[in-house]
Structures are given as C-alpha cells and as structure tokens.
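Risk register update: the risk of archive-format incompatibility is retired. Evidence:
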Amino acid sequence: MAIKSAMNKMLAVITAILMSTSLFGEELNHGEGEVEHKFNVNEMIMHHIQDAHEWHLWGGHDGTSIYLPIIIMDGGMKVFSSSHFYHGTPMIAEDESTGKKHEYIAGVGPAAGYAMFHETIYKMEHGALHFEKDHPHADAPLDFSITKNVASLFITFLILILVMFSVAKYYKKNGAVAPKGIAKFIEPLIVFVRDDIAKANIDEHKYKKYVPFLLTIFFFILVSNLTGLIPLVQANVTGNITVTLFLAVCTLLVTVFSGNKNYWQHIFATPGVPKPLLIIMVPIELVGVLTKPFALMIRLFANITAGHIIILALISIIFLNQSAAWGALSVPMALFISVLEILVAFLQAYLFAMLSALFIGAAVEEAHH
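Archived output:
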C-alpha cells in the first residue's frame, strides 16, 4: 500500500509538471509556432505564485478556468464574476513619469469603470488607468473578493472538518480501540503533537490546554502545504505572507497572554542585571518578543514560496533555450524538488508547531530556585 501511495503521488507530481509546461508553452507560441513575446522568467514565476481572482485549471490565456466572485465596496457592495475582468478589454497605458508602457484589463458589464492590474482592482478615470512611477495613479475600492487563496482556505477548512469529525465519530462509536481507516493515519499525528511537541516543550502540568491550539496550526499548515502540491489545485496559501502573518500573530497572542510573573520579570527586570543596564536590556527583550513570531512567519512563507519558485525556474530552462531536449535535465530535477516538497510540507508544519510550543513553554515556565 505504501508503494502504491508513493506511485500515486509521483504520478500526480509528473502531471503537475507536464501541465505547467503546457502553460509555459502558451506564453511562448502564437499562431503556427511563431514567437509572440520574449519569454520572461521573472514575470512568469511571479504570475504563477501570486494570488488571483480566478482558478486557472489548464491551457493558456483562453484555457479552462473557474472564475471566482468579485466582492468590492464602492458606494455600496458590488458582487459579480471575475470573468468580467479576464474577458475584459486589454489596454495599454504609458507611464507619465518613466515612459514605460503597462498593460491592464478594463472590466466589462458589471465591472465597467474598474480595471485590474496585477490582480489588484482600481477605479478608472475618464475610461482609462493612469500610471506614475510604475504604479497606477488611481483609487482602489475595498476588495473582499473570494480569491484563489481564500477559496483554498475554505477547501482546507472543509477537509479538516470532515477528517476530524470522522475520526471523532469513530472513537465515539468504538471507544478506545485500535484505529482503523483514516483514524489509523491521524491518531499517530495527534499523539506526536501532544507528546513530542506540546508535552516536550511546555510544563507537564500546563501543556494540555495548549494542545488544541498546536493541533490546529499543525494540521492547518500540513493540509495547506499538501493541497498546494495537488495538480489543478496548486494554491500558494502558506506561501502567502498574509496567512503566515496571521498564524504568527496567533502564536504571539497566545504567548503574551499566557506569560506569568516569571516571564515578564525576565523582560522588564532581568535577574542579576544591574539596573542601569535595564535601560538597554528592556527594549531588546521587547523586540525579542516580536522577532520570534516574525521569524516563524518568514520561515514558513520563504520555504514554501522557494519550493514553487525552484520548480518553475527549472521548467523555464526548456523555454529559455527553446528546446525540448533540455527537458531531459530540467524535468527530472523539477520532479526531485517536487517530491522533496512533500517532505517540506510535513517539516514546516512540525517546525511552526514546535517553535510555537517552545515560545509558550518559556512564557509559562515557573522560576527556578
């Protein structure tokens, strides 16, 4: 079964790579094999890792996509499909300060009067979007749209609800018995988080109340990382710094509100430190409280994003050299990195939960006499 599962994952990764190459090919070719634009690696990579208002499945510009709902607040709530942008009117504006030309999409139908530039929606002035110093010189309405990453968050939430309720129902029905089915896979992970993360880093008399929080962030990061590797899904949720910022803030709040007298004493009145030095030490300690969750945020964001970038860069070698022969080198290397990403998905979930437990453990630790 393990070999079969590994083979299925391998086939899924190969499918994802082949689908990616077909997407890149659309950017290179036009008509009967003529080159339309010079292949821009940086532009292509940034396009594939950033969030979007559509869920692109396959094909090039006119390929198959799921158009997500646009929800903006501009003199009232306006809701319409993102297809009114992606099937809108391509327009080019010249930057008034640099002379550089920028391409954007003018909305049609319910999206008339708005323009989309790099997945950001702006209000047009006199039917056009104006640029200054490579940025649109226009107002942006409040955007509450269901983007690709938001939709993926809902999918992750649904998966976790179904899996956890299924496991809970199994034990409620059968009691404390040997696990079967999906419970056989989930129980070792729950026990691992409880014993090797929570109990190992937090006081043995206080760790239990933090287990639900640590389980939540562990499984959320793990499922988000794994779904990002599935063909046709490939959402970069944990590669979005907004998501990792929220997770880091959650850890910060739990740590700060769990801090006991001993924790705050070491920050504002470090034992054994002369009082004059506290003028320097206290700001340093306060900055340290913030830099710890900041490191969590950057580590998760950077590692997940880097994996996507490396795979895309390796595939780009084929199109930079405009030769399929380079696939013999780039595809195996990209395949290796893709398989390695499965390990990284588990590793990053573990590191985030473990370091969060470590910070909480330091906050609730009692003074040693």
